[in-house]
Write a structure and sequence with these properties.
64 residues, 2 helices, mainly alpha, 86% helix
Length: 64
């Protein structure tokens, strides 16, 4: 995975976490934990799916 891709995924995850914190100013860390975990898991799944798709493309190009 290219560094630019990693950076964009990390930035997206960061923005989601910041949005969750901003939307719930009165909640403490315990109340925000589950939504933050879900947001991070979503971004990790996105990265894994993207890398899987790219690997399939690479393999398809290298086979005769």
């Amino acid at each position: 995975m290219r560094q630019a891709t990693i950076d964009s995924i990390a930035l997206g995850a960061y923005r989601d976490v910041e949005r969750i914190i901003a939307e719930r100013p009165g909640d403490g860390p315990a109340e925000r934990e589950i939504p933050i975990r879900i947001a991070l898991a979503t971004w990790i799944a996105h990265a894994v799916n993207r890398e899987t798709r790219n690997d399939r493309r690479r393999v398809g190009r290298t086979r005769p």
